[in-house]
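Appendix B, record 7
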Amino acid sequence: MPIIPSFKHDVFLSYARVDDEPMPGCTEGWVTILVRNLQWRLAQLCGRRDAFGLWMDHDLARHVDFTPQILSSLRDSAVLMVIFSPGYLASDWCRRERESFLNEVKKKRRDQDSSIFIVECDRVPLEERPAELSNLIGYQFWEARHGRAPRILEYHHPTDAYCEKLDDLARGLHNELVRLKQKCTEGPPPPSEGGDRPVIFLAEVTDDLDVLRDQVKRYLDQHGLRVLPDGWYPRDAQAFQEAADRDLSLCTAFVQLLGPIRGKSLPGSSFSYVALQQQWAIAAGKPILQWRDPRLDLGSIEDSDHRALIEGGTVQAVDLETFKREIVKSTEQASERRQRPAGQPFVFVDIEHEDLPIAENLYEILECHGCGYAIPMQGGKADAVRKDLEANLLECDGLIVVYGQIPEDWVREQLRQWRKMLFRREKPLRALAVYQGPPDREHPLGMKLPQMQIIDCRSGMDVHRLGPFLQALMS
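Structure tokens (predicted):
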């Protein structure tokens, strides 16, 4: 019995015969076992075994042509579930099923809805996917192995990894069927529904981290967070960035898992997909949370750019469970923090005692432009000073680090501390600058963060040099 009243079948299963050939000594193949396991789990989620309808051609080998029965079943199915593999790509039969389903959607379902689910039983490079499937993230029933061929997850004696994937697939399919049913029977939900859910950008990763990324996504889903991207991005450089920028604009935080592998470069660029996603998140002003395995030997990473990325100040070298909890915690903290009333920008002037005299004119200029400001506590217990510093870094609209008499290593450390606080902020910083006062230095600071300005007042205060900072602060 189908869940969706306007269709005869909820799910049409499209697969290549070769993927259901039993292993020697076995009587059932990969696809048959998956379907039986999926039906069992869906029955639990739906509350009864006959609560959904799945159509599968068990006599695939007998058909010599695309029969009317298959075409009719395709037309009357809400969801196309593809068992994706090299065999699927090589099958003309599977291509015709896919094209027929999509043509039917275009012709007759403009006022309805349809979905395609991808179940990867083996690895297929993204660039080899048909265009109509290129942006769909599949349920990956294989695992990458560094320096070795991928391994299909054990299904005759299911492992934990297989069971987790099965549960993800069943829950995803169940949620989609319920959504389609509601759309058919109740109409579309109000535009505001789900609008308050925090959104996390979970970056694409290298193959060796796919399983860990899935674990993080599952954890965030269970805690009520929406995760983007919800599909593969195009491999074209401009289209990839446009898609990432669009999703980043909707997100409250950027989350990324980093491993020893650099990953592929964007066509025409020396940067990897891994590095570029972080750069775009920084440009978008998003809080950044990155993770690496604390057991990772950094010295074994030969690529200097990738090693610098992994050694960055926003990378947490902790166990994955701790990192997952930190993502949720930081999201909750951001939601709980009260919004500062608009109208008066607040600037934190990070300065040491030695440089207080050169910054007096700076305070006057900020006040004249209607800005509030704070400097670090100049005394008190170390713990209180640290908490005050963190609070100012979290709440300020603009940050100025004063570089005068103080040694350059102090300034560099303050900028690193600022980067570490990014992932905890609720909103992006409007303006960031290093105020460089006397004495004149022989060597530059040698450190530049994205969108950081240098206010060069080594020859004395010049209000015009603060113009770009104030303009960014007021925008």
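Remarks on this record: Residues 301 and 307 are 6 Å apart (CA to CA). The two ends are 58 Å apart (CA to CA).
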